[in-house]
Amino acid sequence: MDKKIFIEHRQAFVNQMMDKAFALFFSGKAPHKSADQKYAYVPNRNFYYLTGLQRENFILLIAKSKEAYFDYLFIEEASDYATKWLGRRLTKEEAADISGIPVERIRTLNEYAGFLTDQILSDSRKALMGMPQFLYLDLYRDGPLGKPISLNETDILRNHFPELIIKNANESLFQLRIQKGKEERQEIEKAIAYTKKGIEAIMNMTSPGRNEHELDALFDYTIRLAGSEGVAFNSIIAGGKNATVLHYEENNQPLHDGDLVLLDLGALSGPYAGDISRTFPVNGVFSIRQRQLYELVLSVNKELIQIAKPGMMVSELNQIAKTRLAEGLIRMKLIDDPAKIEHYYYHSVSHYLGLDVHDVGTYQIPLVPGVVLTIEPGIYVEEEGIGIRIEDDIIITENGCQNLSEGIIKEVDDIQAFLSKKR
Ligand SMILES: [Mn+2]
């Protein structure tokens, strides 16, 4: 994405900062795996949103006073040693070009501590502005008792300056991230296009006797070959009864003639995620029963996409999904009381989508244009070995919504026609 996007993102964040404040964002580190091995590095999403950079160990500093704001970036030094052992480091010029932070404000990490004490946490003439009162940090927790990483990173600083008032940067960032700009939307569309390729490759390969893991591997292969960085989350490839386990990730069982297979997967484009679910018959043809249940889920998927618009709450979409699915199951005599729908449908119908697959932000506000969310009704009848979910990714527009994944087939006839013609 163009650097002007990240300049806009920083400006939008600064607009919500108090005066006499500074903010610190850390790009993160790859987590330790075992011995000298690490897991793949995943850039901190807020850091990416503000800089466009996907590099370990970087620090973004934004200082704001009444008069102005300053953004500084601290990056790893591009030394011969680092290049030989760890790969080429980003130069200051390259970091400036990606983030839009002026190159004269890009420093190396060994300058960070001195810069903080001399130019930020100081009233001296060298200081950028007066002594700050507030420090904004990404206080994201990875669990109810998880300690935000940014607190570890600023332990010494906060001990030495206990008068600094800590503010949660996520309050405004999560708000900003809910609404996607044009370029962000395009990234998500690219992620969905990769996902579509992967799904079609899977549909071409599926037949009785194939194993879920083969389809899993084919999805990875297809999207990466197409240019995606990889999967946005662990793919769910669930044949038959496995599809009634909501977060089934084993993906290691054979597919059986007469079963359905449920796919819930998504490719990345840059750090942006797609998230699509499709369900289709392993042997190419829906049974009458499968088709009956499938058509019900599909009708709810389509109705919700029809009605989603600004002003609606996600909870309303949920309620409508539940009501419609219950009505359908009552007609089929699977249940006799709408409350019993919980037995066959037990997840939420939507979540935000963006830099995170379950993207950040509160659901206590109405939808507004630019919000990207999933529409994913499902029905899971364990006793019949049938699990169905049909998930599309939509963007809220001025007076409705647009289905970003409408190019991925989901009508029964289209699916059967596709499967009958497969290579
Ligand atoms: Mn989803």
What are the defining features of this structure?
423 residues, alpha+beta, Creatine Amidinohydrolase, Chain A, domain 1, Creatine Amidinohydrolase, 2 domains, 6-stranded mixed beta sheet, 3-stranded antiparallel beta sheet, 13 helices, elongated, binds manganese (II) ion
Distance between the termini: 36 Å
- Low-confidence segments, given as residue ranges, are none
The helix-and-strand class reads alpha+beta
Number of domains: 2
Number of alpha- plus pi-helical segments? 13
Number of strands: 18
Q: What's the overall average pLDDT, rounded?
A: 95
At CATH level 2, the architecture of the largest domain is Alpha-Beta Complex
CATH superfamily membership of the largest domain: Creatinase/methionine aminopeptidase superfamily
Shape type: elongated
The proportion of residues in beta strands is 15-25%
Give the class-level CATH name of the largest domain: Alpha Beta
Please give the share of residues in helix: 25-40%
Bound molecules: manganese (II) ion
Strand order of the largest sheet: 6-5-4-1-7-8
Q: What's the main sheet like?
A: 6 strands, mixed
Radius of gyration: 24 Å
